[in-house]
Predict the 3D structure of the following.
Amino acid sequence: MSDVPEQTRFPTLDTTPIPVIPDNVPKAVLELPDNQAEFPLVEAVEGPGAIAIASLNKQTGRNILDPGFVNTAATSSSITFIDGVKGVLRYRGYPIEQLATSSNFLEVAWLLIYGELPTEREFEAFDQRVRAKYLVHEGVLTYIQTLPRDVHPMVALAGALSTLAAYNPHILNPLDPQQVEDATITLIAQMPTIIAATYKHSIGQAFIYPLRELSYVDNFLNMMFSDKASEYTIEPVLSKSLERLLILHEDHEQNASTSTVRNVGSTHADMVASIVAGVTALSGPRHGGANEAVLAMLEDIRSSGDSVQSFVNRVKNREEGVNLMGFGHRVYKNYDPRARLVKESAHDVLEALGVQDDLLDIAGELEAIALADEYFIERRLYPNVDFYTGVIYKAMGFPTGMFTVLFALGRLPGWIAHWRELVQDPTTKILRPQQVYTGSLERDYPAKFVGIRPIRRSRR
Ligand code: SDX
């Protein structure tokens, strides 16, 4: 497209490698029965610092054991800050409440990826480059047509995203800055197109092509909900509410799927492969899959005819398979600020869309009971981002199976920002944890089996 401004030289992040720790910092002393070791203390700009234990095994012959990395910082990062006790979330220092209210999805994507808010010219060029790449290779659509119609949308997304590597071989070198830029634009521009195409395929409707004159979110809504037989009018409240939800999901520091993207990126696998890994990690019900599970939970409560209190009692009794989905968080030991923002808008969005849904009332009753119950209070369990989003997505017209796909669409810029921060850091090592071995000691193959179980040969 000739009127697309020439590519703005996107500022690559001045990723400072993990700071070399000076010798004169305070030390932590580890007393062992047979040894003593000292480790420098590393301070954060904000939030908890760390004990830098890179020399632990060398000094003590031991590793640390920290299942789930509850106490382990795997990296330093300057992208997102969370204070789980105060319920604070900031992208590059900007509070989520301000970005969700005043910014837009692509501007926040630029902020996360490049570290600063874009100038007007930078934003225009970025927006134009994304619009220029909305269209996917026809081969991607052909792949989608081969899928079963009832495939889970997250499975369809992971598969279709993978094909971007097949049709865009020039964006796969993680060490070529231009290819990293091209991969960034291609993924951001084409994920909505892929998502809408998989949805149209699932309902047996013709695919709706992207329109470059439409903004990012409007283009996505048009591909999702317009059809070949009628004009589709994009409701501003729908577009604005979806944009706000996508911003709320754009990053969340070292969560499980972002850590997966970083892990895969640390092998110098390409950005597409790393993002596909993030999508698969996100699909789990303990993580991004929770928004879909919350709606199922609310519908089960409604159809059971039992009281909400009796459901809460079943959760507290730890009945098999009975979980309070959308509650609890590894970091937030207070109300998830995103959940607060989603809840605040839920009633307005449903009212503006003219949707009545008693599931929202059930969710409100469930929250009120849980927040007043000692079982949840002592475990510091609060609603997380997934608790209310499903009710809104449902009111917007998205099928339940797509809720986690919408989470992935929102999270994509954060995944890319973390991948770039890691790959561009020359000190990054391949992420390869140690273990504490608890298996058998050395033993020999039983003599009585020798000669009896030869390596199986194929029989013609
Ligand atoms: C996301 O990390 C991120 O940032 C993720 C995310 C992001 O933006 O990327 O914020 C998105 O994944 C949000 C979380 C969505 N998942 C759910 O809503 C699923 C339900 N929540 C739980 O599975 C759980 O709370 C986790 C997985 C979210 C967090 O688990 P942790 O930190 O490992 O905590 P835990 O399992 O050790 O639980 C501590 C205690 C336990 O009780 P005790 O054994 O100590 O008596 O709290 C209990 C748990 O049984 N508990 C719950 C509970 N979550 C934890 N009890 C009832 N209902 C729950 N939901």
In short: The radius of gyration is 25 Å. Residues 1-15 have pLDDT under 50 and may be disordered. The beta strands are 27-32, 35-42, 50-51, 80-83, 88-91, 94-95.
